[in-house]
Amino acid sequence: MPIPSPLRTTLRGIFSDACTTDPAECLAYGYDNSRRQGQADAVVFPTAHEQVLALVRACADARVPLIARGRGTNTTGATTPVAGGVVVSFERMSRILEIRSEDRLAVVEPGVLNGELQAALAARGFFWAPDPTSAPYCTVGGNLACNAAGPRAVKYGSCRENTLGLRAVSGAGVEFRSGVNTTKGAVGYDLTRLLIGAEGTLALITEATLKLTPLSAARRTLAATYGDVVNAAAAVARIMAQPDLPCALEFLDDAALRLARAHGGDAVPDAGALLIIEVDGAEADLARAAQAIAQAARGDGLIDLRVAANATEVDALWLARKALSPALRALSPHKINEDVVVPVSRLPRLIAALREISRQHGVPIVNFGHAGNGNIHVNLLPRDAAEVARADAALDAVFGCVIELGGTLSGEHGIGLAKRDFLKLALDPGALDLMRRIKAQFDPHGILNPGKLLPPADSEQP
Q1: Do residues 110 and 207 make contact, with C-beta atoms less than 8 angstroms apart?
Q2: Measured between alpha carbons, how far is 459 from 315 in angstroms, rounded to an integer?
């Protein structure tokens, strides 16, 4: 249903030419990397907090849906306008407002690209811990919306651990600041962490104060190959049980390795499984830490353990790892990409179970991901109609296994539409009810990203 004429006039007044209602232009802002597609009635491009405030109040008054968007790299349908309405693209709010090295913080607008921020921080000797594969083209605002992470999260944490404060506008049109400008603070409820991972269902973030970490003086990269995936998963548990914490611990199964070799060549080994392990820190401590982690990596099934000889080998390993997701999409346009998490000690059981689920349901499954966090990207790759028909049951089995192992449904991709109806597996009714009440408090008219994240209450089911 088209947006009301008075709201259309209001949008033009707020945004002038930075607003479109052309269906073809709106269509380009109705998709994300889940390949879901919606049709917005309007798209607006704010450049200032005050415009966002006026926008939310106007949409709340008109009871029109409002969907925040970064660059559309989300894989769960979280930015698709399933109920029409207005998409607010933050691509023009892309300024790094301040970098305060002495306070180890940066203040940025939500449209800043992660990669551009990292480059600016590196020039000062710092980084922001979240480093998703899509860093060159995903935004900080999108990272915050999904609590994105990446390989460095095993040591340095996700967005929640690396964001000090936010400026935002609730769905009720109330502007507020949350958090602190210090590394310690105990001042009421932690609204900052609440908004991070909320997928734009509670408030629109217009500014973020980020916690910075100094770049390490040195780094060492190890590649450990194993004859089978279960032994590699067992090695992950041993590595994480000893005191020296790697700054990255990535897992690739045999199918992922075959794809990685196609991109990285002989720098990527041909084996049953691979762990990419990075250690960082002071040069004087690096050799000891690397030796301790290498010792933990040794065990049943180990084929080879080596240190990357030079930067070229390191880059080849990481480029191949980061090319996996788009390569899998090319293999199967029906790819189902999940990012489940289990306790690290139970990772061997998960990997073995995924193999069995693939066999039982006759659906290829490729696994890789951030093993140090127990966060595995499970890629179901149905190639024909018969496999597509079996994929839903296979996915049910994957989620059931993860919950049985004490895990959860998402580590960094979020819930969106793709996993919304599975959320009842991960959360008890009391927790879901409290979340719905929080949503109603922040967004009483239900305009912010409707239909996402929280499953409908039983009474709302059609």
Answers
A1: yes
A2: 53
Q: Is 148 helix (H, G, I), strand (E, B) or coil?
A: coil
- Beta bridge partners, 409, equal none
Candidates 369, 335, 353, 374; CA nearest to 252 is: 369
Supply the DSSP symbol for 455: P
pLDDT in tens, 151-174: 999 999 999 999 999 999 999 999
Q: Which H or E run includes 224?
A: strand 218-226
Q: Which of 84, 87, 80, 70 is nearest to 36 (CA)?
A: 80
Strand pairing of 213-214 and 175-179? unpaired
* Residue written as token pair 């590394």: 183
| Both tokens assigned to 305 | 């353990």
pLDDT band at residue 316 under the 50/70/90 scheme: confident
Residue 104 is encoded by which pair of tokens?
Answer: 């180890």
- Judged by DSSP in three states, 46 sits in coil
3-state per-residue secondary structure call for 252-303: EEHHHHHHHHHHHHHHCCCCCEEEEEEEEECHHHHHHHHHHHHHHHCCCCEE
Evaluated on CA atoms 38, 110, 419, 347, the torsion sign reads: positive
Distance (Å) of CA 120 to CA 16, 103, 263, 369: 32, 16, 29, 27
| DSSP helix, strand, coil percent of the chain (3-state; round to 5) | 40, 20, 35
Give the whole-angstrom CA distance, residue 270 versus residue 256.
10
Provide the percentage of residues in the chain whose pLDDT is more than 70: 99
Distances (CA, A) of 142 to 46, 109, 149, 263, 414: 16, 11, 11, 28, 11
Residue pair 395/336 in contact (Cβ under 8 Å)? The answer is: yes
Measured distance CA(409)–CA(415) in Å, rounded: 8
Residue type, 278: E
Residue 332 has pLDDT above 90, yes or no: no
Q: What is the pTM of this model?
A: 0.94
Sorted by where each starts, the structural domains of the chain and their CATH numbers stand as 5-89 (3.30.43.10), 96-214 (3.30.465.10), 218-322 (3.30.70.2190), 323-443 (3.30.70.2740)
Q: For the stretch 155-188, what's the b/e string if a residue is b when 16 or more beta carbons lie within 10 angstroms of its beta carbon? A: bbbbbbebbbbbbbbbbbbebeebbeeeeeeeee
pLDDT band at 369 (very low <50, low <70, confident <90, very high): very high
Residue 267's pLDDT band, with cuts at 50, 70 and 90, is: confident
What are the angstrom distances between the C-alpha of 297 and each of 112, 236, 266, 275?
38, 7, 22, 9
